[in-house]
């Protein structure tokens, strides 16, 4: 299994699109340095101002929350570049994969997706923290602040549940469809399903549409928006109260994760059997 995971990570590193994505994310983390260099070149360093109570803790919390709200870049996009052709298109497998079933390859693929996503998050945080420290040191505003980083970490962990549901759906879509264009169209429908149902409900306003009301709030896209919308209300220096509704949304998304993953393994094992 370790060799399979290493093979999947090697594939990710070799794909040009993934390298471009990684570079863009790291450039985002370097934005404080770019702002500082621009102000130095124009002689306007004195114009850089930050709140008196903004310190390193606040900077880390801010970056964690930004990653939370941009989680698609850190978790969803890797699958778009790294899905195994051996699974989706039945291509000949390499030596390291020849003695393993497709379900084992799928397991290694899922693990490698999360490992690479974790790598992006950790490196982006490190680059962002270093660049922020340099900026705060130059303008003489370096302090540790008093924000609760744990709050932002909790928000980041919660955001992985809806994002993981989307990732598992993408895996399933690739297994079933096998075509990038079809997967993109299907994912757009998946991510907008509650809005599509609301549009249908608006068109059919003269007819009873109670069944649409019954299902639209429980679609993965509606649950995703509910959880991310809840996280957007997170404020610094305040505990993160999780309401019963959010717990329910997280539980339902977890069920979707289990269903999508279970179907993926069922289809893969069925293909192996054939």
Q: How many strands in all?
A: 0
Strand content: under 5%
Sheet with the most strands? Answer: none
Query: Overall pLDDT, averaged?
Result: 72
Distance between the termini: 23 Å
The Cα radius of gyration reads 22 Å
Order of helices and strands: HHHHHHHHHHHHHH
Helices, by number, come to 14
Could you say which structural class the secondary elements and strand pairing correspond to?
mainly alpha
Principal-axis shape: globular
Poorly predicted runs of 5 or more residues: 84-88
Number of domains: 1
> Helical percent range?
over 70%
Layout of helices and strands, plus pairs?
Layout lengths: L1 H13 L1 H14 L1 H12 L13 H14 L1 H12 L2 H4 L6 H4 L3 H37 L10 H29 L2 H12 L1 H11 L6 H7 L3 H12 L12 H30 L1
Helix pairs in contact: 1-8, 2-5, 2-8, 3-8, 4-5, 4-8, 4-9, 5-8, 5-9, 9-10, 9-13, 9-14, 13-14
Summarize the structure.
This protein is mainly alpha-helical and 274 residues long. The protein has one domain. It has helices at residues 2-14, 16-29, 31-42, 56-69, 71-82, 85-88, 95-98, 102-138, 149-177, 180-191, 193-203, 210-216, 220-231, 244-273.
Written overview of the protein:
This protein is mainly α and 274 residues long. It has one domain. 77% of the residues lie in helices and 0% in strands. The protein has helices spanning 2-14, 16-29, 31-42, 56-69, 71-82, 85-88, 95-98, 102-138, 149-177, 180-191, 193-203, 210-216, 220-231, 244-273. Helix 1 crosses helix 8 and helix 2 (16-29) packs parallel to helix 8. The longest helix has 37 residues, at 102-138. The chain is globular. The two termini are 23 Å apart. The model is unreliable at 84-88 (pLDDT under 50).
């Amino acid at each position: 299994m370790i060799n399979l995971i290493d093979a999947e990570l090697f594939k990710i590193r070799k794909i040009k699109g993934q390298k471009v994505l990684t570079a863009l994310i790291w450039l985002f983390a370097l934005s404080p340095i770019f702002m500082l260099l621009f102000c130095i070149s124009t002689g306007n360093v004195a114009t850089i101002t930050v709140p008196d109570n903004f310190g390193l803790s606040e900077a880390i919390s801010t970056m964690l929350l930004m990653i939370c709200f941009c989680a698609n870049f850190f978790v969803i996009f890797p699958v778009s570049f790294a899905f195994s052709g051996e699974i989706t298109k039945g291509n000949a497998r390499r030596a390291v994969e020849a003695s393993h079933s497709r379900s084992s390859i799928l397991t290694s693929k899922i693990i490698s997706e999360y490992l690479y996503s974790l790598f992006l998050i950790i490196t982006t945080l490190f680059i962002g923290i270093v660049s922020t420290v340099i900026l705060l040191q130059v303008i003489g505003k370096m302090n540790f602040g008093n924000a609760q980083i744990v709050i932002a970490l909790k928000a980041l962990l919660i955001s992985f549940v809806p994002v993981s549901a989307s990732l598992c759906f993408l895996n399933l879509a690739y297994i079933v469809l096998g075509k990038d264009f079809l997967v993109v169209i299907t994912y757009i429908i998946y991510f907008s399903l509650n809005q599509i149902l609301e549009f249908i409900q608006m068109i059919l306003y003269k007819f009873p549409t109670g069944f649409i009301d019954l299902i639209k709030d429980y679609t993965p896209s509606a649950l995703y928006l509910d959880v991310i919308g809840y996280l957007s209300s997170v404020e610094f220096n305040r505990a993160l109260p999780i309401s019963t509704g959010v717990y329910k949304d997280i539980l339902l998304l977890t069920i979707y994760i289990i269903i999508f993953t279970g179907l993926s393994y069922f289809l893969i094992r069925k293909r192996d059997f054939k």
